[in-house]
Amino acid sequence: xxxxxxxxxxxxxxxxxxxxxxxxxxxxxxxxxxxxxxxxxxxxxxxxxxxxxxxxxxxxxxxxxxxxxxxxxxxxxxxxxxxxxxxxxxxxxxxxxxxxxxxxxxxxxxxxxxxxxxxxxxxxxxxxxxxxxxxxxxxxxxxxxxxxxxxxxxx
Amino acid sequence: xxxxxxxxxxxxxxxxxxxxxxxxxxxxxxxxxxxxxxxxxxxxxxxxxxxxxxxxxxxxxxxxxxxxxxxxxxxxxxxxxxxxxxxxxxxxxxxxxxxxxxxxxxxxxxxxxxxxxxxxxxxxxxxxxxxxxxxxxxxxxxxxxxxxxxxxxxxxxxxxxxxxxxxxxxxxxxxxxxxxxxxxxxxxxxxxxxxxxxxxxxxxxxxxxxxxxxxxxxxxxxxxxxxxxxxxxxxxxxxxxxxxxxxxxxxxxxxxxxxxxxxxxxxxxxxxxxxxxxxxxxxxxxxxxxxxxxxxxxxxxxxxxxxxxxxxxxxxxxxxxxxxxxxxxxxxxxxxxxxxxxxxxxxxxxxxxxxxxxxxxxxxxxxxxxxxxxxxxxxxxxxxxxxxxxxxxxxxxxxxxxxxxxxxxxxxxxxxxxxxxxxxxxxxxxxxxxxxxxxxxxxxxxxxxxxxxxxxxxxxxxxxxxxxxxxxxxxxxxxxxxxxxxxxxxxxxxxxxxxxxxxxxxxxxxxxxxxxxxxxxxxxxxxxxxxxxxxxxxxxxxxxxxxxxxxxxxxxxxxxxxxxxxxxxxxxxxxxxxxxxxxxxxxxxxxxxxxxxxxxxxxxxxxxxxxxxxxxxxxxxxxxxxxxxxxxxxxxxxxxxxxxxxxxxxxxxxxxxxxxxxxxxxxxxxxxxxxxxxxxxxxxxxxxxxxxxxxxxxxxxxxxxxxxxxxxxxxxxxxxxxxxxxxxxxxxxxxxxxxxxxxxxxxxxxxxxxxxxxxxxxxxxxxxxxxxxxxxxxxxxxxxxxxxxxxx
Amino acid sequence: xxxxxxxxxxxxxxxxxxxxxxxxxxxxxxxxxxxxxxxxxxxxxxxxxxxxxxxxxxxxxxxxxxxxxxxxxxxxxxxxxxxxxxxxxxxxxxxxxxxxxxxxxxxxxxxxxxxxxxxxxxxxxxxxxxxxxxxxxxxxxxxxxxxxxxxxxxxxxxxxxxxxxxxxxxxxxxxxxxxxxxxxxxxxxxxxxxxxxxxxxxxxxxxxxxxxxxxxxxxxxxxxxxxxxxxxxxxxxxxxxxxxxxxxxxxxxxxxxxxxxxxxxxxxxxxxxxxxxxxxxxxxxxx
Lengths: 155, 792, 287
Prior knowledge:
The structure holds three protein chains of three kinds.
Chain A: E1 3-9, E2 12-18, H1 24-31, E3 50-53, E4 56-59, E5 72-74, H2 87-94, H3 104-117, H4 123-129, H5 141-153
Parallel strand pairs in A: 1-5
Antiparallel strand pairs in A: 1-2, 3-4, 3-5
Chain B: H1 13-17, E1 33-39, E2 45-51, H2 53-57, E3 61-66, H3 67-72, E4 104-105, E5 111-117, H4 120-127, E6 131-136, E7 162-169, H5 171-179, E8 183-191, E9 203-209, E10 214-219, H6 224-235, E11 243-246, H7 262-274, E12 278-281, H8 284-288, E13 297-305, E14 311-323, E15 350-359, H9 373-391, H10 395-402, E16 411-412, E17 418-419, H11 424-435, H12 437-449, E18 453-462, H13 470-476, E19 484-490, E20 496-500, H14 509-521, E21 528-532, H15 549-576, E22 583-586, E23 591-594, E24 597-603, H16 604-613, E25 626-631, E26 640-649, E27 656-666, H17 673-692, E28 724-727, H18 745-762, H19 776-787
Parallel strand pairs in B: 1-12, 10-11, 14-15, 20-21, 27-28
Antiparallel strand pairs in B: 1-5, 2-4, 2-6, 3-5, 7-15, 8-13, 9-10, 9-12, 13-14, 16-17, 18-26, 19-20, 19-25, 22-23, 23-24, 26-27
Chain C: E1 7-10, H1 14-23, E2 28-30, H2 36-41, E3 49-52, E4 62-65, E5 68-72, H3 77-82, H4 88-94, H5 100-105, H6 108-114, H7 121-128, E6 131-136, E7 139-144, H8 145-148, E8 149-151, E9 154-155, E10 162-169, E11 175-183, E12 190-201, E13 204-213, E14 220-221, H9 223-229, H10 236-245, H11 262-286
Parallel strand pairs in C: 1-3, 2-3
Antiparallel strand pairs in C: 4-5, 5-10, 6-7, 6-10, 8-9, 11-12, 12-13, 13-14
């Protein structure tokens, strides 16, 4: 069975026929070649696959492409505007918020929504708000610093 | 402009923050097919038959192959050899490890068949259609139980499942020390099995060129050259000069991506068999039953102490679980990277260590962040803490009393290692000061009055990094020397490409190595490009693990840069008609000038071009400007640390909250403080994961109960406060950079620091020792026991 | 990481959903998919047919009036967690499900229809005395939450039925509710979850609802806790006694896993009951 879907990704509308079982993350990675969104687990926990779906952060490994039919998706590749890095991307760079980089796209996407919903988060709120994003390299401290810096930069 | 010592922002970050990381799973090649592997659900079983007909007939399936196909070879792809062990002490018995099991499966997760199909979805569908008739066999999982009479024998040739027995030290002197000791602190402890969980699951892709008979393999490895050597020499049989192994961006390793894995054989073999590129990507649950696990020691240890707290002897017996096969470095971890560290920071005159490495029906165990040194530090620092408690001496004081003084370096330990440099007293002074230790104890006393379970714990640790001098490591059992390669290639226009056998998988070498080479040559960092991870572009290198890359890989670059400086200095002398001895290389500005006449100078770029223009070279000097070094270190390096932590236990639930963590580390000279700090903090969090939550737990039948992140608790952001880190710097005299290595020190120290803090919190209840992980339930049970009159 | 094949149909209305369910016996309903898709990803679930109801607008949203709050079955946990209309125990619980990304997709209807013993909402809805509105081939019906959760992963939903609305009594003056959860450090599901609601009038507790979950195959009404509260002045000592009383409400079957065994979980039931009670009483006194 194949189902037609129309999904706008990073501002560009894509129409494809997909198996209903195709996960959104596979649609993005294999269907559209947008490999910035990573797969880090198979239990919907690690958050490496986090994207924005109609304005909220979601785990694209736990969403079917058919569920995103008619929706707008933003991936890490769509964050920078006109060649300018998003404040969150810049903050991660400035504050050594990444080491191997694998969790980073998902972490940044989650962090962007965290700050949108809470413009002046405390360290504790950041740590709690990133509960759904695992990092094995950084020990989280510089990630917290990065998010705080990005929140500050938005003032 | 100089860069070394500065927190330069990482040059590799732009691609990662924009989703352009080049992980193997992202690779797309025309005509690519996808592989999935059928894995044994049994811990040990005979394979009676494999029926793959339904799988082969599924639309979109290209082929299905079994272990027998690989070892016997098929028309289009020759036979595979067994996966060797790359580190074998004398008399080590190595079980045969086929890339896919042929007759017997030896652990849950052991590969049985491979499906290759048009999509990963179809490949996984087909795996489910393969029917295997297994005859389950009795299994054994415990490292010590495996060595006992009556345990199921995994391999006929390995009696008592004991692959090796390794000893080091002076048994007589140690026995004597114990017979004369005022106190003997004795402890049975378990260093529990861990699952590495690098965020990127392993992936392998391969492409075969039938015309040139060349194979390219992409693998998320920490050491592509070693994989190429093993594939060529042992498992795949493609000549080394026709085999290219590329490890592009690798999403974390922590040791688990060092080893030569079956998929690195299977995927290229299949690519050749079907003459199409093939890719395999592990799922996380799959990685839990295939990636090498860490630790898993069962240990009995004792410390001999005088009344005044002086250590006089240490005796350790360890059963180290190797798992079902010997992974690439496995026997090294509980031997030459473990027993050799038993002296710790202390003068212990008599030490005796014995390790039995046993095979069991579990996933193979190998190096995992710290690799032997966390295990050594854990037992030693637990014993020291118990000695402090038993003798009623402060935990800092008892350590101070036994430290190797700073004027006794180089220090020959009783367990082979010669420590290079250190100022351990300064470490402890600094951490005491930074933590406000005396105040911490006062606050703890007040909290205890209120019935609160607050604990203060510390550790003083040392580790041996940067393995290691080739004569030493080979004599210990390594199948290859552990030097590192480094080319500094200057281009005609004066910018530089650096080719290093080190392979960053998060450590930031593209930045730190550029800092080093830029400073060596006096260039802006932007002019230096670091290339790593491709065997076609880089001479034989040994990869990144063991916190070795700055000390060995970086030093190779320093030496190559020296050769470059020497050559351009000679050329400048020739051009400026001066004596070579009269030339000065200005490393800050990248010029060469005549001593006393700074206006008579040549820039690096001018000189570089001149070597390629080659119109007027000095007698005996060839054109071109590049230098290659294979740098073999003269010793290990010895990072060391003193950490203090404060925890509080919720009496009602047993849950531990980390309230403060203060870390002082001596990692020698620091190239990039920001990156070093990142390594330390990341390492600490990982170390604490072992102490409080992580456990690769098997049931007695060899089923992995912690089979996914749903049951294996990884540290998360909300588990930690911000930490305080400090530095003591005693440069290593053994490499030109003076670095010691920072990648593992945090983990080595943190595990036992938090363990000691938790045990300190429980001390008023009379609880002596609890094995990790110190889960809420375990602590709660200890609290209940103590309140009911029992204690352990 | 690759779900097995299934047929897929989309419903744009409740009646269409019912009709599709009628046509495809044994089909699973897809709402937010955050119980179903994880199970399919590791091939523990293999539904032949999925009926996607995620776009049915009439099933989304929270409205209040006539003494009750009505939550559409497709309302996400994030929306419930942020709502100041629902009783606090419910927003508490919704706010500790999974993580922010999960809460943006998981729905209250999907969560309770799945009835995972380690989930949070069944416990809260049982304590609050919620009423579930169900529609199916035989028309509409309602069922008390206490009767809805039958057993492990089993509800009173009949074939072809879906939950449309979850109705909870609105919080009145003197009423306070809370949910306390002992989370599994790995999965962060509930190893123990206790929900409590109390109404105080003139210093005495006139009404109480309590439930426990996480350690039991299904959410259970904590009648002993309720009995220990009603008619009493809720001093700290009284709360301790009420928390202890939960031991009588746990039933014979205690779930365990490698993170926590039965003995620990049972003890924690009283500890977390105490925490939920303290918070509920504080809120009741403040309201």
